[in-house]
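Private note to self, pasted from the team thread so I don't lose it. Backbone tokens:
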């Protein structure tokens, strides 16, 4: 498969996302990294932006799509079979649910969806069981959105926080490409 793999600003899960991208490439999929503007430019305690960029380019052999202008041709050129957004933050979830297109990732999704192709959501947000819950619910019911199974990540210290099971992204994407939902179960 040709996979567009988007990363948004849940920086604490970037190492999981990078491991997932390596797994996808090792399985023979062609992966093109896509990063939101913040994910592309912000240095955090989880890594410097340029180091993350270089690692993604090294793993995939492809340059990173990181602007709205670069993401717009995804649909017209039918660049991908599946678009994965993992980690997907509450901010990106809200924009997808409301149809707001103001980042490279939301443009990638809008452009990709014009071809009725699957978008796989691997959520990672401290507000999943708060204000973001309505957006998760909306996207669970939209056509062509497929969720990676997700769970609470720290119920004592972050009682509203949920994160996807990164080990299930590959399987979720491969099934989504065939139009099969892996699960809508929260476990």
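Design output:
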């Amino acid at each position: 498969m040709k996979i567009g793999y988007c990363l948004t600003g849940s920086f604490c899960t970037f190492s999981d996302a990078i491991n997932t991208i390596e797994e996808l490439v090792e399985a023979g999929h062609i992966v093109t990294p896509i990063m939101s503007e913040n994910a592309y430019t912000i240095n955090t305690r989880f890594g410097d932006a340029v180091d993350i960029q270089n690692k993604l380019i090294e793993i995939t052999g492809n340059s990173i799509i990181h602007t709205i202008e670069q993401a717009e041709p995804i649909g017209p050129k039918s660049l991908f079979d599946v678009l994965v957004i993992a980690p997907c933050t509450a901010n990106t979830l809200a924009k997808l649910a409301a149809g707001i297109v103001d980042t490279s990732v939301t443009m990638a999704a809008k452009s990709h969806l014009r071809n009725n192709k699957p978008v796989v959501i691997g959520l990672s947000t401290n507000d999943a069981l708060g204000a973001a819950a309505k957006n998760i619910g909306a996207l669970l019911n939209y056509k062509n959105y497929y969720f990676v199974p997700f769970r609470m990540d720290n119920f004592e210290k972050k009682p509203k926080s949920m994160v996807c099971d990164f080990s299930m992204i590959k399987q979720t994407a491969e099934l989504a490409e065939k139009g099969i939902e892996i699960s809508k179960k929260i476990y």
